[in-house]
Specification:
The complex is a heterodimer of chains A (300) and B (193). Chain A is mostly helical. Chain A has a domain of 171 residues: Metalloproteases ("zincins"), catalytic domain (Zincin-like, 2-Layer Sandwich), CATH 3.30.2010.10. Chain A contains eleven helices and four strands. Chain A has a four-stranded mixed β-sheet, with helices on both faces. Chain A starts with a helix and ends with a helix. Chain B has a domain of 135 residues. Chain B has 193 residues and is mainly alpha-helical. Chain B starts with a helix and ends with a helix. The radius of gyration of chain B is 27 Å and the shape is rod-shaped. Classes of the chains: A mainly alpha (300), B mainly alpha (193). The interface between A and B is medium-sized, with 11 and 13 residues.
Chain lengths: 300, 193
């Protein structure tokens, strides 16, 4: 596939996955509504609470992540290739140059964060700077800045709020059932509490949070492919990014300072997996398998 | 008479008609504005190219001084570089800019090749720094050209595709020119293979 068709394909797939997600969400709350008669209270409260933590981390994402990984600002005199790659990608994308930082970790990796292009941050590890040549580094930075340009932080935050809502609501309902069931006489007694809606509800409570998480991970992987394709378009050299990913993938150990909350931001899954993994492992991963990413880049 | 008109306008078809008319106006305004935005972006991208060309030109005097300190007699190299710089500053059209930029790249290549024969010059940290900065400016010019072209692509596509081409015709929005490869640049690619 050409770069352009890969880009459109990824955008379309993101759209379809999100549509599927909306359907799932509606179905979940519909079933709740069937049983209890009114799901609005659950939906509203769930959204509000789930929003609080996600929106907070979204707004301060740049400061939070830097604080947690021990990053140091990059300097042109010391990190010439990194700094100029940042400058050049800003020219090529038309977005302002992000703040650049270096993390003192020997595992090669990079990430980007920030709520919009004006408040963006790109970080690389010392390990990455040590093993990449100028072209490969440019490819990595192009990938990170594509995430920024595509507002992926916003996309993932919105998805995360929705997933959080589903999980919270499922949790509350299950707890209330466990601790003696819902009140017999609701003020909104329009729900039909029969055995069928009950079974439907239980199934929904178990399946919905899991499915929501899987969809969230699918969206994350799709955005990674899109960032790869956009980076290839920016640098006009997909082979450089492919070679960079190759170098990152053969590095044996994972990163010391990543957490599961920040894992999705990195260019390569910071928790090392030994082998390619079967389809089940891949479904639960925030990143697509590296071999697949390299293959697609080489085809462009 | 007025009662009759009001009566007809306030019926379902009447309301639908007004709604459609309003939406159409919004669409036209939005489309016109998006053409203006794209055209302005192109102008900005063009001046972005000039910024990078100027950056390149500004590094030259320092480079010439540094090299002269070690290799005074290499007059031809200095002349080429200075001539190239002059044509870069004078260049007006896109083709002139591309040709001037290429002339500069060629002149610099000769200069750096000549510098190989002067180990003291090669060891000079100022020279090394200027060298990598100039190589970087070549990338910067190339990326700014690419960005300009991607904006022109978006604008020209919109001018030609339906239905935006109708609005483009109405308000006389014309296609912009791409920053295309010059004949010299095309020749270079042939030679490589």
């Amino acid at each position: 596939m050409t770069i352009y068709s890969q880009i459109s394909s990824n955008k379309q797939k993101t759209f379809f996955i999100c549509a599927l997600f909306i359907v799932l969400l509606s179905g979940f709350f519909y079933i709740i509504g069937l049983y209890y008669g009114d799901a609005n209270g659950f939906l509203a409260l769930g959204l509000v609470i789930s929003s609080f933590s996600s929106v907070f981390s979204y707004c301060f994402s740049d400061k939070l992540v830097l604080f947690s990984v021990g990053a140091v600002p990059a300097k042109k005199e010391i990190h010439f290739n990194f700094y100029t790659a940042g400058e050049n990608m800003a020219i090529a994308t038309g977005i302002p140059m992000p703040k650049l930082y270096v993390i003192p970790d020997s595992a090669p990796n990079a990430f980007a964060t920030g709520r919009d292009p004006k408040h963006a941050v790109v970080c690389v590890t010392e390990g990455l700077l040590a093993i990449m040549d100028r072209g490969e580094l440019e490819g990595v930075i192009a990938h990170e800045m594509s995430h920024i340009k595509n507002y992926d932080m916003l996309v993932m935050t919105v998805v995360s709020v929705l997933v959080g809502t589903v999980s919270l609501v499922a949790d509350w309902i299950m707890r209330s059932m466990w601790w003696g069931g819902g009140s017999r006489d609701d003020d909104n007694n329009s729900g039909s509490k029969n055995i069928f809606t009950f079974i439907l509800l239980i199934v929904a409570l178990i399946i919905a949070p899991l499915t929501a998480t899987l969809i969230q991970l699918a969206i994350s992987r799709r955005r990674e492919y899109l960032a790869d394709a956009d980076a290839a378009l920016l640098t006009r050299r997909p082979a450089s990014l492919a070679s960079a990913l190759q170098k990152i993938s053969i590095y044996p150990t994972g990163m010391k300072s990543a957490t599961s909350a920040t894992a999705h931001l990195f260019i390569s899954n910071p928790f090392k997996k030994g082998k390619k993994g079967d389809w089940l492992t891949n479904m639960f991963s925030t990143h697509p398998p590296i071999e697949e990413r390299i293959r697609l880049l080489k085809e462009m | 008479m007025l009662n009759v008109i009001n009566y007809h306008l306030l019926t379902m078809p009447g309301i639908a008609f007004i709604l459609i008319a309003v939406l159409l106006v919004f669409y036209l305004v939005g489309m016109y504005n998006s053409f203006i935005v794209l055209r302005t972006r192109i102008k900005e991208a063009l001046s972005g190219i000039d910024v990078q060309l100027k950056r390149r030109a500004d590094l030259i005097p320092n480079l010439v001084e540094t090299v002269k300190g070690y290799a005074k007699h290499e007059k031809e190299v200095f002349e080429n570089v200075t001539k190239a710089r002059a044509s870069m500053m004078k260049a007006d059209t896109l083709t002139e800019k591309a040709e001037a930029n290429n002339a500069m790249s060629g002149a610099l290549k000769s200069l750096f090749a000549v510098a190989e024969a002067y180990p003291d010059l090669k060891a000079n940290t100022n020279f090394q720094d200027l060298q990598r900065q100039l190589e970087d400016t070549e990338d910067k010019v190339s990326f700014s050209r690419q960005f300009y072209n991607s904006n022109v692509l978006e604008y020209n596509t919109k001018i030609q595709t339906v239905p935006s081409n109708l609005i483009a015709g109405m308000f006389n929005f014309k296609e912009s020119e791409f920053f295309a490869a010059t004949e010299e640049e095309k020749k270079k690619i042939d030679v490589k293979f």
